[in-house]
Amino acid sequence: MLSNLQPACFFVILVLCTHLNVVIEAEKCLKEEFHEVSVQSDFCKLEIAELECLLSSDEITVAYESNVFEAVTTWVKYDAENRKKYFLQLFKHVRLQLVSLDYISDKVRTETLVRESPECRDLVEDAFHVYVNPQRFKLQTVRKGEMKSDAKVGFLLCFGGCYLCMYNISEQIWTTWTLPSNFNLTFTTAVSLGTCTYFCGGMDNNQPTNRVLISNGSIFKPIAPMKIARINASAASVCGNILVFGGELSTLHTFSTGHKDASFHKITDDFEIYEPDKKQWKVGGNLLSGPRTEAATVVVKERVYLLGGYNSIQEQVYPSIPRRIKRACKLVDVYEHSTNSWTSARQMNHMRASFGAAALDNRIYCVGGYQDSNTQVATSEFFEVTAGQWTNFTWETPWSGPSSACKCGGKVYALGSADQSLYSLNSDEEDWDIHSIEQNLPNCQKVIPISWRSI
């Protein structure tokens, strides 16, 4: 019944109605229509206790947290003489971590009500510090229907070497940054958690490193290093933690002939976990199916799927020249973070390493890659999670070889590393659309979605 009423009527119901169920329904509607309700004149007639109850709720529906700040200032200024004393009390309910840096600087910091209160100015200063050192703060909860932190949504980040390349999907615009040489991202894995992106491992002075860098669009700095230096690892974020699987160590692989080759590092079979609240890494254990490197990871319903990758290095001696190659596998292992346990899933149809994988609508899509160090894979396939069945694409993949993939905004995007083109999956038409061709894009190896607060 109430869903057919105009938002302004909710206030009248709260005041006049004594039927408990109707009052509860009206309060629910107030939360669901909070932004529209907050610009009504009757909103300013709410009592302080009623308003504070609304502002403290995770259930109020707003597009941006800045809408909450505007609602607070509007209510106080309606009767500033009598309500000014409540501003700090209400301002504490504005989740400033979820407000963009530009808005805080241009609107919140300059608001007279804020400037006149030392306690409010301290809260604003803390919000700025979150951008500088996010690891020091407990992240605030995103409200119902709210875009995370007024964040940049619909953005992809491609990276490799000393380059970060951000792609604005809606405007089809690339922005490229050149990083200092000591922040080289070659053979680095990366994953986003909330409004931050973690870059783990990679090469430093031609050696695997345990370095971890974090960025939220405003800063790019090192945090606690991993326990083990590794390259070509796989990463995932689940249950508020960062997990890094396998990869290659600084130790060189020893072939059966006793030879060592600087191009082949020992593949590891362990993983480790970063807990942001404790700011430290811990040993996770061993992988289910032995050593893996250049594998892919996706998360479905808080389970991490570790797909493919190289799991062996072989040496074939010809009359004069040894042929040394990495061999990919079809393995699919599933990690349950809540129980720290592994299970096996049905293997892929094709051996793949250094390939793209993304999960969408209970499907896992796998594209491109290598089956060994020298042989590219030109096929794609998808896994029905519920049915436990792999199916080959019946349509052609427009590129072969190394690739990376991710989900963003309800679509699967894939970066063809060889041609440096960005594709989006059009499953309705059984085809890949060339979403962007960037001729000047540096040699990027990976693509991930980002929700940075500030660009």
UniProtKB/TrEMBL annotation:
Signal found in the keyword field: yes
InterPro entries the UniProt entry points to: BACK (IPR011705), Kelch-typ_b-propeller (IPR015915), Kelch_1 (IPR006652)
A Pfam family assignment: Kelch_1
Signal in keyword set: yes
Gene3D superfamilies reported for this sequence: 1.25.40.420, Kelch-type beta propeller
Signal peptide start and end residues: 1-26
Highest taxon in the source lineage: Eukaryota
SMART domains on file: BACK, Kelch
Keywords, alphabetical: Kelch repeat, Signal
Domain BACK, residue spans: 9-109
Stated name of the protein: BACK domain-containing protein
Organism field: Clavelina lepadiformis
